[in-house]
Design goal:
Blueprint lengths: L4 H17 L2 H10 L7 H20 L4 H23 L7 H32 L4 H28 L7 H19 L6 H31 L1
Helix pairs in contact: 1-4, 1-7, 2-4, 3-4, 3-5, 3-6, 4-5, 6-8, 7-8
Pfam family, one: PQ-loop
Membrane topology: Multi-pass membrane protein
Keywords: Membrane, Transmembrane, Transmembrane helix
Length: 222
Amino acid sequence: MKPNPIAENVLGTMGTICWTGQIIPQIWKTYKDKKSDGLSPWLMLIWGISSAFLGVYAILRHLNLPLQLQPQLFGFFGLINWGQCLYYDPHRQNKGYMSFLLVAGTMISVGGFEVFLVFISRPAYERGVTAPVELYGVLSAVLIAAGLLPQYWEIYKRKEVIGISYLFIFVDVLGGLLNDLSLLFAKEFDGLAAASYTIVIVMDSAILIAALILNPRARRRR
């Protein structure tokens, strides 16, 4: 497809808006319900960690600015929601204090790790050594996919989809689609970045399909 910087940035910006705010409905649902039953905390923690690798990859590959910003916000909101899962866990002691410390410490660690990777990888990348950066792209895709596996386990255990905001899933899918489309208009199509976005589209869609199949069955059982 012919490169189109305007289309690339418009679609990338729209995708970033979706992937900036896609976890906000989940944060709101968890806050409103005052519980996180059915939502795997591992999903949000692993996604938060994956943002470091995706962020380094986007920065060093000089993806459009919205796609460089997206991993930072994706990781931030993911870790906020992880903190909610910790806070609303009825089995934890000193939930507020410990949840804050864990989330703040993890955010600082993930952010510092990303800056460190950018710092040590940039000189080699500018000399044409691209293998480390490609590895970061692969790791981000693997972690994004792996993060959804604990959520699948939650669904399997409960035989229904609960605790998850469907708006979160829908916006997540839409953001992945828009980000994929933005890459089609780039001067050079980035397959690894596209793989990360496409994995989210496919695996999130599986959750929606599971809800359509399992939730009516669960209601009939009750």
